[in-house]
Write a sequence for this structure.
DNA sequence: CTGTTAGCGCCTTCAT
DNA sequence: ATGAAGGCGCTAACAG
């Protein structure tokens, strides 16, 4: 049995001949430009439909070919996951170059609203699109809206700014990610009763806040045997996280699970190891890095809730390029899945 | 702080001028074609390097532009996952058409080696590349080798044929998938002791055999409390699977987990539900479908080991197109991850 | 061994 | 409202 998808047969010129008009007119109809009598437009559309005509992308690209400039705004500092994002974007430079496009990476203190919004504003008129790891704050939202209003394309990355006029968000559904972490801890803790510690970077980060929300929701509804302690905030830093975690372990003898919402996982892990509680505590963290990979293999971490930085980087650049070229965004393909990584499906 | 990736500045012609040669010579060097004196080649390469020159893809594509034909060989029958693969490939027809390419889907009895290899042989000279869901059998391997030798590109899909000359395999690591299923069942069964049932389609299918291997390995080494029963084979059919599963449940009162390696999950699920053992048995199956999605939500299935059919379809077509155009395959980007899907990270 | 040149299919002024 | 024609950058056939 066979299903065929024949090659679209002809070119603009064939369609033009078929419809009894010139190529320029076909082009106008194809791009919905004005200046075509409704009647001729119809004839053209019919010819297009009859042959299932699709303009050859390569030719269109070549004919347009203008240099395009993008920017990536990402946090300074040693957050490994953010480094991976930056590296992955850098690795796209070849891909972009062969399309007459380029990215410029701007590192900034993302935790500081005025600094971040100034970095955004500084791009006005200098680039065609920006991908930004953003804090969800009034002034940041305003800056994004400004840029969008000026005709620039804005994509939020990893953490969203929902109220804003950003054109697209590239990242996981963080509420669902929190729920996922909760059900992992719930199911891996064997119906024992006890307390669950939550370590976050800052609840001002929308992704962190959303994860905590989803986490509490599922534990609260489905695991009455478990109690979620109030989240502690360590600013995504190892040293602070280690102190906070050590105190938690000392204060809560019946702690049976830990959820680290943000970065700084090595600090949390160290405190757990130093307390000699590795095997007794179910530990779920985010994002696969060289550290979390080793910790999974050693059994310190039980599961990682992951988002693929390579995929996010590619998606961001692909979406920006598509927006600039007025191509439709394939939402299905651009959705970033929440990945559960345990020892045996380590990629 | 800023990192810049400037747009590659110029065109073939600029490089030619810079190197004091003609565009044709630059083109030759760029594509490693013969007929260039080593010395001039060096000068060209230097100019290319100096400007970090990248040829504009769109122009190259346009200049080459030949119609390309692909085929997909997939199983007949009502296997939902295979339907999804077919649908996803069909949905790429627009993407392909705008690149002067097309796919033809050929349905065949993949379980039958002679039929499958004949279907493969029939493509000889008719298409430029084929993606095939293959049985790992002597005659199939021979057919693949024949096609490859004739200059056709062959990609195996979902299930690999390792000994053959196929150019690429698009699909998950099935041994790792089996290990993943095992550690899910092991960890979700709360250290209880008991038996684990395994239902497969056929051990002649390489993917099924590999999954079983990985599964037994992990349960054997890491969960001494669990015993894996001999796999039963239901040919991926619901009705047969249901019977087999019902018998298993009747015969094994201490059955605490079930791993369904292939399709026909509804049959297995029905037997478990009818026996009233939904809550007591840890059930892990493969591939997210409308059925497994509902079963996850209802709690009948505890976890699904998934591979994304859309991603596989796109990867297969992208790789084939790349092979035909002699572009390098980005192995990193084309790797298909093993996804763990539980209720809370349902996409 | 190297250079010249005519396209590839579409977009975009500029005329009409 | 419509058409004619010159590019866009690269490839490949043909000349030298």
């Amino acid at each position: 049995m066979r299903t065929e998808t024949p090659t679209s047969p002809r070119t603009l010129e064939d369609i033009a001949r078929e419809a009894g008009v010139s190529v320029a007119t076909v082009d106008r109809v194809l791009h919905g430009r004005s200046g075509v009598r409704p009647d001729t437009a119809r004839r053209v559309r019919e010819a297009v439909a009859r042959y299932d005509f699709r303009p050859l992308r390569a030719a269109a690209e070549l004919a347009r070919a203008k240099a395009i400039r993008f920017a990536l705004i990402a946090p300074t500092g040693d957050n490994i996951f953010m480094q991976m994002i930056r590296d992955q974007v850098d690795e796209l430079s070849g891909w972009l170059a062969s399309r007459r496009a380029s990215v410029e990476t701007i590192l900034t203190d993302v935790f500081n609203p005025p600094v971040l919004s100034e970095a955004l504003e500084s791009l006005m008129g200098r680039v065609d699109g920006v991908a930004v790891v953003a804090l969800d704050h009034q002034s940041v939202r305003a800056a994004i809206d400004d840029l969008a209003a000026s005709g620039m394309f804005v994509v939020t990355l990893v953490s969203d700014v929902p109220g804003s006029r950003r054109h697209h968000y590239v990242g996981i559904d963080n509420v669902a990610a929190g729920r996922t972490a909760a059900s992992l801890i719930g199911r891996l803790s064997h119906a024992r009763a006890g307390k669950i510690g939550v370590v976050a970077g800052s609840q001002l980060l929308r992704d962190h806040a959303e994860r905590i929300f989803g986490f509490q929701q599922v534990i609260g509804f489905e695991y009455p045997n478990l109690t979620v302690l109030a989240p502690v905030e360590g600013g995504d830093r190892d040293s602070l996280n280690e102190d906070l975690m050590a105190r938690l372990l000392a204060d809560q003898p019946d702690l049976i699970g830990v959820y680290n919402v943000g970065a700084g996982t090595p600090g949390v892990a160290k405190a757990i190891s130093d307390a000699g509680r590795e095997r007794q505590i179910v530990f779920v963290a985010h994002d696969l890095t060289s550290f979390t990979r080793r910790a999974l293999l050693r059994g310190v971490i039980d599961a990682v809730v992951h988002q693929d930085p390579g995929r996010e980087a590619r998606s961001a650049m692909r979406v920006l390029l598509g927006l600039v070229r007025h191509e439709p965004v394939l939402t299905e393909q651009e959705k970033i899945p929440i990945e559960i990584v345990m020892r045996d499906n380590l990629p």
